[in-house]
Amino acid sequence: MGENLARNIASKGFPVVVYNRTAEKTDRLVSSVKQVLDIRPSYSFSELAAMLERPRQIIIMVEAGKPVDMVLEQLTPYLSRGDILFDCGNSHYRDTGRRQAMLEKHGVVLMGVGVSGGEEGALKGPSVMAGGLKQGFEASRHLWESIAAKADGEPCAGYMGGGGAGHFVKMVHNGIEYAILQLIAETYDIMKTGLGMTADGISVVFREWGRAELSSFLIEIAADVLAFKDPETGVPLVELVLDKAGQKGTGRWCVQTAAELGVPTPSIDAAVSARNISALKNLRIQLHDVYGERSKHRVSNDVVEKLRKAYWCSMVMSFVQGLTIIQSGSQAYGYGTSLDEVLRVWRNGCIIRAAVLKDLREALKAVGDAQYLLKSDQLVREVVSRVDGWRDVIIYAKQAGIPTPVLDASYNYFISMTRKALPANIIQALRDRFGSHTYERVDKPGIYHSSWRP
């Protein structure tokens, strides 16, 4: 991804100096673009710093965690006041804040920059979410806007706010991505296992969906993946892929952060748990042998259309949850993040780009608060027109023995958030019974404690 980002930057007319701890990789990149792009090699941090004009602008793309600290430790002695560093990896937002404070003592600005789009996006135009000192973004705005993807002629690059805001927004972006990927998996499973459809048939359905309200990058590439054949066997390659989904941590961070902020994110939570379950392949095989096959083919003529409605609703719930985390995090940490700006830069280049973002942006303008997105007239109409089909799909999946954690969690989120009364009253009563945690009453004000012993 770093190589492709360097190629993208150089292709826009910016001179680039690259460094990699493996000299062969540096040489290979420079050789591959010789006489085409202005990319020059360096072979040490001191040489890199010496070759750059001051104030320097340096992009760091390494694995999150200790590798970033190691790079900063080795690079900092060669920097000068006014230099700007851009951490474009998936660093934890708290690590970014800590590093910003450390570098500030040296007069160096660190920007935490979320870059979404994968290797292809890095080359052709990513979505860029920058966070840190505003002057750091302004000093580099031309660079990011030049290399970013465009939507309606606007660059999908923007300032997310102070501190670790850029990495915070990217973390939530990835959490939403987890939910949508799992949603696609569940949709695929219902059509394959429940309806007995082929990979080619499901690909056709996804392509059709991608031409209407479900248009998105992930639906588009899901159709491609399902249609791709293994060169050796001629069968759909997806059917030969081991059912163990990997993860790098951003989804887990998103769930942990949401819990700390008190923001309910059941769709994202369920997606992270589903990946954890997928990793337990050997245990799943053993339990399958004990309990037998639970999933079964079940004929139904209208499930695909209802599934289309369920997918849209569950995707919207995932976005609503994610946007609420960003809003709550911005308020808690003083980032000053604009949700409209977040939705603007997500319109193209990023992995979760989708047609529904336009609906969410309009809904946000109408209600002004992420918590109230489901109150917007537009989303109310859209959800109400689909909710029965959404429910029916979940019933079908249960009867067919197909696990649908994100579909279920999203639906439960919706029916919980739209209920005037929940059974939390007995939870609070039980807490007061065993721990004297007290309770409030619905018929009069005050804080109460009872013995709860008849």
Automatic annotation (TrEMBL):
SMART domains, sorted: 6PGD
One GO-annotated biological process of the protein: D-gluconate metabolic process
Pathway assignment: Carbohydrate degradation; pentose phosphate pathway; D-ribulose 5-phosphate from D-glucose 6-phosphate (oxidative stage)
Recorded GO MF terms: NADP binding; phosphogluconate dehydrogenase (decarboxylating) activity
Keywords: Gluconate utilization, NADP, Oxidoreductase, Pentose shunt
InterPro entries: 6-PGluconate_DH-like_C_sf, 6PGD_dom2, 6PGDH_C, 6PGDH_Gnd/GntZ, 6PGDH_NADP-bd, 6PGdom_BS, NAD(P)-bd_dom_sf, Pgluconate_DH
Entry superkingdom: Archaea
Domain 6-phosphogluconate dehydrogenase C-terminal intervals: 166-453
Its EC number(s): 1.1.1.44
Family assignment from sequence similarity: Belongs to the 6-phosphogluconate dehydrogenase family.
Known partners and oligomeric status: Homodimer.
Name the UniProt record assigns to this protein: NADP-dependent phosphogluconate dehydrogenase
Native source organism of the sequence: Caldiarchaeum subterraneum
Lineage: Archaea, Nitrososphaerota, Candidatus Caldarchaeales, Candidatus Caldarchaeaceae, Candidatus Caldarchaeum
